[in-house]
Amino acid sequence: MKSGKRSIRRVQLLTWVAGLTSFLLVVGVGGAAAAVRMESGTTKVNLNGFQVGGIDLAGLDSAAATRKLHERFEAPLDAPIPVSLDGRSLEPTTRRELGASTNVDEVYRQALKLHQDIPAYKRLWYRITGMSVGRQLEVVTKVDGDRGALLVRRIAEEVNKPPVDATVSVVGSGFRIVDAVPGFALDEQAAAEAVEGASNGQNKAISLTGKPVPAAVTKQNFKDVIVVKVGENKLYHYEGETLVKTYDVATGLPKYPTPIGLFKITQKRFRPTWVNPAKAPGKWGANLPAQIGPGPNNPLGTRALNLNSPGIRIHGTTADNSMGYNASHGCIRMRMSDVEELFDKVEVGTPVIIQSAGPARLMPSPPRAPTIQDLVESNGVAAQAALPAPAAPPVVPVPVPVAPAPGPAMPPGPVVPPLDLGMDDD
Predict the structure, then answer these.
(1) From the candidates 115, 237, 329, 331, which is the catalytic residue?
(2) What is the pLDDT of residues 49-68, one digit of tens each?
(3) Catalytic, out of 115, 237, 315, 329
(4) pTM for the predicted model, two decimal places
(5) Whether residue 115 lies in the annotated active site
(6) How many alpha carbons fall within 13 Å on the CB side of residue 399?
(7) Is 331 in the active site?
């Protein structure tokens, strides 16, 4: 081993000696001094063995070296990279747009400095002898991951679409169920991996994928639809878009109209309890019960379907004579057997479309004073003046004793019916 090293040193020494001898013989001492001064003023790398990223810089001035290095390391960063989503072409990108950059200019400046730091006489010696300096500098490509993440987010904003739920649309005097439209979502995890591979130069193209996003409410969710036509005073029960039954109902008086629009059932109440909304001194309901439980006098009947409109319900009544008329204080009255049947078929969330279908149809009976069912149905907004005046206490005559007269017995007096609390809404 030692003898081998000594042999190498002898070869190197002989090379140096041969070079020096040639130098002295060719240019002489004066010429050597001039050559040293010339080497001190050079600004290009002209020695063998100065390499940047595998490119030999020997003999290249700054402009030529920079051009050659940029062609190798910078130009590829600006080459277009195709981007597609499920086979559909999107706007292409580049590695530079994805955050890739190189330090090639910095490494070239470092190579120049290393070259200039070599003493001039040594540089001249390397040139004359043709020996390699043996300096190899590497170019590093870095990637700013935030730039790729920004691209993924931008694409997601462009292609992502939220689902559209199915709805009931009122069309003229009817309706139709508009089916749901599924949404779309970019697979952002897979997209981030594809973008990272492209920014590092591993992928020559970016292929993205996505998946549909189902709607929460589809056409199948509209199992039932209720249509109420005010003026016609009919309730139509549909299963989907198929009419299954028609009911006679009573809707609101012109003074207390049933609201028009698209609503839904918010609560199903089995044998409900009516709670007095105006049980307070000075209020219209001050003299009425605080509540009325299930039974024949309950204003809501045996079933009630609350709508998302304050005080408006579909409920039962014993006032069957009001069916087919605008007779309520805003609610939708049904015969007791009808509301019980409908109650068992529909669920909370069922759409209720209330439409105007002509002028009000009033009951032929003569006007009467408001009863508790009317006041209950108006949800506590009836004026105190609308209440019937309380009955005057009966006058009890002072009995005058008289002698009984013979004759036939007196017929019995009239029977006073019990107070009718009505069967309407709260």
Answers:
(1) 331
(2) 788 999 988 888 889 999 99
(3) 315
(4) 0.60
(5) no
(6) 3
(7) yes
